[in-house]
Each structure stands twice: as C-alpha cells, then as structure tokens.
Amino acid sequence: MYMQPGTAYVYMTYGMYHCFNISSAGPGAAVLLRAIHPIENIDIMTEFRGKNCKSKSKKFKIDELGNGPSKLCMSMSIDKETSNKLDLCTSDTLWIEEDLDYDNDFKTVISSRIGIDSVGEEWAKKPLRFYILGDSSVSKRDKQAENQFLDLPKS
C-alpha cells in the first residue's frame, strides 16, 4: 500500500486466503478488489478455482468464480509469490486495461465497507465500497444503498 500507484499488493488473510489490492493515490492508499465479473477464459478460471476447493467435483457458476476477494485471487491464480509488487502498468503477466467496447451506462452503488468491524465504527461505516448495480458477481449487496436508484428515471 506504500508502493508506487498502480502496483499490486497481495497479502494473506486468516493465514490462508490471498487478497489483491492496487496501490493508488499516495502512501497508504490502495483499492481492494472484492470481486470480478468474468468475461473470458472462464474455463481456466474454473480450473484455478477448483484447485483450491475442498470439493473437487464442485461446479461453479460464472458469477461464483470471483465473487469475493479470496475467490478472485483463486480464480486468477493470484498469490504473494507470483503477483505481489507487480507494476500493473508495465507487467506482461497481470495488468489492468481499459475495455474500449465496454458499455459504461451503469450505476455505481456506494456503500460502507464490509468485514472490517474490528477497526471501529468510524472506518467501518465510511462509504468506501463501490460496485455496479445489478452485477451478479458482487459478493454482498447493500440493498439500502441500492434504494437510492429506485426513484431515478430510466436512462
């Protein structure tokens, strides 16, 4: 989190699960990727995800492949050894790019963070979690935050 913006920061949680962050605006600032919406290489993601699953015969729905921070890492084969400290602006193994064909006509839900109650109410309640309204790969929906969109005119 104290690296050059655009650098991968991978850490372990509960001593067994990886989480994937991208350092951002400055020292101590990072974005935790909590979920992904798979659009290609789903067979490869399913294979990676299955390697880390207790039930080797489990069938995953597409939106279950990366609907949580550790599931995202499993499905993308992200771990500290291979992905920590990668410069996502120059790496040829893992990078972020703009999808020029992506339809950006979506609504962004802004809600409080989840899973961090131990840091105290002030930080746990800050509106620092963002997801696309209606995306099936979201790990946990905030229905109260989504209600703000009920009265909006259709675009």
From TrEMBL:
Keywords: DNA damage, DNA repair, Hydrolase. GO terms for molecular function: alkylbase DNA N-glycosylase activity; DNA binding. Belongs to the DNA glycosylase MPG family. Its EC number is 3.2.2.21. CDD domains: AAG. This is DNA-3-methyladenine glycosylase II. Pfam families: Pur_DNA_glyco. It catalyses: Hydrolysis of alkylated DNA, releasing 3-methyladenine, 3-methylguanine, 7-methylguanine and 7-methyladenine. InterPro entries: Formyl_transferase-like_C_sf, MPG, MPG_sf. One of its GO terms (biological process) is base-excision repair. Hydrolysis of the deoxyribose N-glycosidic bond to excise 3-methyladenine, and 7-methylguanine from the damaged DNA polymer formed by alkylation lesions. It is an enzyme of class 3 (hydrolase). It comes from Photinus pyralis (Common eastern firefly).
